[in-house]
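Thread title: Can someone regenerate the structure for this chain?

I was given the following input by a collaborator and told the matching structure tokens would be attached. They weren't. Posting the sequence so someone can regenerate them.
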Amino acid sequence: MASVTLSKINKVFGSDHIINNVDLHIGDGEFVVFVGPSGCGKSTLCA
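Best answer:
Regenerated them for you:
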């Protein structure tokens, strides 16, 4: 079917590094949920 791979994802707002060098592989058939406190970068990573 399908898989998703993110490699070396970075996101910077001004001088603030919100996401720094994230690598993620989601294999075919896997179910993934991002959890964490408000403002930790969950939506930023997926956007």
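Residues 42-46 form the longest helix (5 residues).
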